[in-house]
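Two entries, shown back to back:
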Amino acid sequence: MNLVKRAPRAVLLALGLSLLLIGNSSAQQSLSIGSDSVAGLGSIDLPVTLTSTAPTEGFVLAIGFDSQLVAASEFSVVGTVTEAAGAELVVPEILPSEGATLGVVMDVNAPFDAQTIPVGTDQLIAVLTVNANALVTVDTPTPISFEDGTLNNPPLDNILVQGGLSIGAGAGLGLNDGTLTLLIPPPDTLSVASTSTPSNQSGTIQILMSNQTGDVQGFALAVAHDDAVLDLEAIDLTGTVTEAQDPELTIPQLYANGGTLGVVLDFTPPFDGQVIAVGVDQHIANFTYSSDNELVDPDPAITTDILLVNGLIGVPALDNVIVVGGLSLRPALVSGTYTSLPVAPPPLENTQFYCGSENLPVTGDTSIEATAGAAVEICFFYSDPDDNLQGFQIAACVDCHLTMTHFTLGNSILVDLQTEFVSFDIDNDPNDGDGCEFIAGILLDALPPFLNQTAPASADPLLIGCLLATVSESAPCDADLPVLFCNDIDGTGDVLIENIAVIDFQSIQDFEQTGCLVHVIPEEVFQRGDCNSDDKVNLADAATVLGQQFLGVPVLCPDACDANDDGSINLADSVYLLNYLFKFGPDPADPGPLLDGPDPTFDLLPACMSDDSSC
């Protein structure tokens, strides 16, 4: 920006005296002030334009207005044809209670190159910056006028200098006034920007300001919250437009149910006039809160109001105000919310409980197969790659088709560690209101001399012990009978038991617990000797045995073909059947050739694929 040359009023008077006062009438020439509008106490640049028929060597402008409504802050030639033509003397004068004047001579310094403003229409020669001095309740137009003989001392007229002659209104210079319309300002607002934060962290609410009335010199905030839900930790200006203006007075106050903040931007010498410029939703302050409630999934989120309130917070109680043009204004208040969010639960301990068959560590299968009426072992295991365990507390809900009889450590490592306390309780009553339950307490070191025996750390499942049970004869075929780890069960007593691992004398409860299923399978039944599965034992079955052995004829029930019950199928079984049928030899072994029944002898022959079963 070029520096504006300023000169005392005497220089301007000398300029005026040097100009010839002989008029050169030209009705086509004029000076004009632009019209515009401004909201609130804002400012606006009004253009002053020139229409000329001859080169202009200088000019004087004298503009007045109603000082109750309007004030001038600057009279400039920056960005105009006046500047572009190289004006050498520019003398602006702001008259606080009257108006403003501007005197310009294009060529006043050697080597006197005779620079001028060229002929043209509506050329911008100056800019008058004005601002509203008052707030209006209705849109109010006020004139911005050329005034001859009233402004400055001695008073000046509006003139052009062309060809060494002074041309004013009396010589035909047209003076076209402008109008500034003061508009009702949009409402100023203070608002709370709603936010959400995990309940285990602090969260910051931003206070926003929309100041359309004018530049803000300071403000006061009073913000309330529910102290049963939140604590106010801090009030600050970090990252705000307020901080950017380097405020000179900042007074935050924290209370149980809210907080206040007073800010004056320009409070100490040299009074540089810091302000927050007109804007919308400008971030002016931060209020930081912490939640009084630690929320963990699946807890619901908690939302509470953050309220901008007048006359309730502070000692003395403060109102929410902004200061514009030295006036204390009450903006509209828009409250917001703070939402405390649940957080993920802490990671589970790496201890795990399992149940399944005794071979679970090898197969990983948590399903146990058994037929109705059969005895079954339901074994419990633990794993923990990092910690030794001092004891176990097991609580299981058991399907009532399983009749529990006993609990034993069996071949568990706990036997080798000489576990000193084992107690269990079995509830087989399906009608007692809480179903069938199993609870057990195991403590490795429970007796003097207290050597602190512990179960070793292991990443692989290690056996704790097995629950012995019988599958009910009424259990439906192909059903899954669940055995699940359940907390807060009491067996046949009245003390609620939970699943616990005892580590370093602490009861660890938050860990993974994987239950198991007893799958009821149909019992294989067949007629011994019925190798072709036609429900009869005859010569065809002896032939089928030979066909299976020497021709690869498929059979549905290998156990039925094992006529002599030696655990294999071969020529001897065909001979055995022929002896039985035609030489009065011994009957085939149980279940015999006449009725379906189970195989009482364990062997490794494949299971029957026929439709004969106990289901």
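entry 2 starts here
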Amino acid sequence: MKKFLVFILTAVLAAGIFAGCTPSEDDVDPGIQEPVYTYDEVSTSPDYAEVDLTGYTTYYFDAENGSDGSSGLSESEAKRSLDAANSLVQTVTEDTPVRILFKAGGVWTGKLTLGGFTATAEKPLIVDAYGQTETEKYARIDGSHIALEINAGKLRVSGLELTAVTGRNGIFVNVVTPGALTDLVISGNYIHDVNFRYDGEEDVTSLDLSRKEARDICPDSTYTYGHGAIVLETNTSEYVGPSWCEDVWIENNKIERVSRVGMFLTSSWARRPGMNWGHNHYYDDETNYYPHRRFVIRGNELTACGGDGIVLLAARDSWIENNTCYYAQLLGRTGFYNAGIWTHSCADTVIQYNEAAYTQKDNGAGDGQGFDIDIGNSDIVFRYNYSHDNEGGGILFCNTSTLETVYDESGEIVLDDMGIPVIEYRFSEWDRVMVSNNVFADNAGPVATCNGYVNGICFVQNTVVVLGDEPNGKVISTNDYNNSMEMGGGWTFYNNIFVARGDAYSYLDMQFCDSYEFKNNIFFGFSDAFYSQDAIDEGNFTYDPQIPLPERAEGGLTGAYAFAAQAAAVYTDGMDIDVRYKLDYASQDAENIDYIGAFCKAADK
């Protein structure tokens, strides 16, 4: 197993990069040696260990031909019911490693509950399918409320098809004991039609849904974050004590037609400013605060989520990698704000090689961006992502204060001189966010929307193609959020390409930012008035980078290769920054190439 020291890379990487978000000096005093530029390795998420099946007892379940009176120890002696499986799970101990296999193509009705057992990280409980064919790849569980509930770690779940058409969850991870639920792998499952009432013959993503049709598929009463394909919560009470998760992999799952959310991974023990729910009496991020640690969310395919696609809250040392999210917020409605893939109250997190596209913004819905670095994030590395055709824009940066009771280090309420509890508006840190080597193409809104008190955005070596077809369209948008009256700042925009398809007047709205710099970027195809803005000075270029501009953005990460510039100057005019990646968006060797945009040279598919 790869050592979890790999996770330390995130913090080290962030520390190195953010120190290098400023340009190096071109003019060097005589006798002073020019800097030697370093190129960071591009790391990927860690793997979990393979399991040695020696010593395991395997039990088989067959929905058609099994019998609960059978031993279950062979395919010919398979057991049958979920009740029998749930009872068997309760008998699993660390000394009796068990593998439970359901026959692919079989259909069970009810709920599979995986809890009340003990196992080890080396010998976890394994739940999977057997007897797969080209047409039958999964064992199916149709849940009325929840198809699969998980209450314990040291567990691996694969090969299941899960539905709950009028129910709550495909998979509900519910932490019910204090401390950390650890070593959980949810891999290779198919979760669909959860809280999603649609039986039409047409692909639902091809429909222009009215407000009424969206509510017919999912009514307002169940359009909540508790409803979705995979929901994780830490629901221990104050009396029981704090709980959280560590070392969790959610990978290679296929999720379709779910509402409200594809994945919602939250906590009831991670309250802090900006995340104003939870049992803990927050003092600071080291005291009375219990975030998740080491989540890996990778290789998942999400299509037609009624609200958000992937939401990770209150996590540290985590990875969101190689996921695709199409048609998020498909069931939007007034007063709701959803995006494709986003984090909230996270730190030391890498978000890379993801594609978010076709996020909707109908029926009065808000946001609608492909990605979102939301409230209370810091030390985030966002690289090699592709955001295209999203109705709300490319990416959202957001932060706000919340009204918080003040506690001391012991968890006791702080009182003022009159004995009244002290309550203050407070912010969590939002800083050191590196946005590098991404492609943003053909999004209907701004490439970046910056709401509230967000600091330290380093936006470098990205390729941006805007539609440019809306008068007074914002390429960058800044706003107050919740009337916090605090401006963000310290934003740098270096070595980016901005190209407009149309020449309707567009502009950079930087009014709610107290310090920023645009330097060594290419701006091309905009209206004449665009170039008169203060942000577009002599430190930028206006020549044609010769991006081919296909009729529309193509899907798949390699679809972004069509936006690689052809002009030779693009690959020599880059400004030196102190720390750069060894690879560009297309995983081409970028060392010693002074390039602008996401690509260090034209990219081949």
